[in-house]
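Hey,

Quick one before I head out. I ran the complex with N-(5'-phosphopyridoxyl)-D-alanine overnight. Inputs first:
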Amino acid sequence: MRTVYVNGQFMPENEATVSIFDRGFLMADGVYEVTSVLGGKLIDFDGHAVRLARSLGELDMRNPIAKEDLLEVHRELVRLNEIDEGLIYLQITRGSDGDRDFAFPDPETTEPTIVLFTQNKPGMADSPAAKRGAKIISIEDIRWGRRDIKTVQLLYPSMGKMMAKKAGCDDAWMVEDGMVTEGTSNNAYIVKGNKIITRHLGTEILHGITRVAVLRLAREAQMEVEERSFSIEEAQEADEAFTTSASAFVMPVVEIDGVALGEGVPGRVAMRLREIYIDEMRKAAV
Ligand code: PDD
């Protein structure tokens, strides 16, 4: 059984509880982060902590935990649950003032709720899925307009994953005004020659922590990076495509809406970036 963390305490998962009036439960009034663990150490903890603080700030939510304490909680969960490869899920909600009301409760008297738990994923770095590559469908992006805030409103991304599954595929890329925004739980890229193309930052997409690292490493490896939007048609004609996220690192894409990319196998650039990313992030893990 896992040991989880709820509001300042470590406890067995079956003893952890949150109020039925919690605004995370009633209103999706909460934010989250997913941090990966490799070799028992945290990948890019700083990046996730900074984005968490930003998400909270954008929603006028109080940050209930200092960065150093948050790092200790992450490390303690890794230790208690003996995680070598896996994920740490963190969620902070606006808490509960014991009833349902659209108006935010008084932050002076209502504590945010903070929950963390681990997901053990042995073999995550050496994933068979990455060797196969992902098949993608495109779906319309009908999410709200502040996708740069990492909120727990994940119903549409969940529906997108189910649409992909029903179509015999692995994931979905979302399209708005004819242009790809991002994947259901990852950022989207195409490769043309030596050039990597990924959507520019804005409120339309989540500013991926993996994206920052991968673009930096690509530039360091003398690859060209272009931050602009692209369409599904352009992606289908690209040499390669891939996605990035804390949970899947760099994931090659081999098919989009039934059209195979290149040879229909994981591309050279995507595989190289995956290797560089995992190597470099292991070195920098804390
Ligand atoms: N998802 N875009 C969306 C919509 C996401 O949900 C995620 C992450 C990303 C990639 O961000 P990062 O590189 O910081 O993980 C982009 C996490 C992994 C999840 O929901 O499980």
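The mean pLDDT is 98.

Talk tomorrow,
K.
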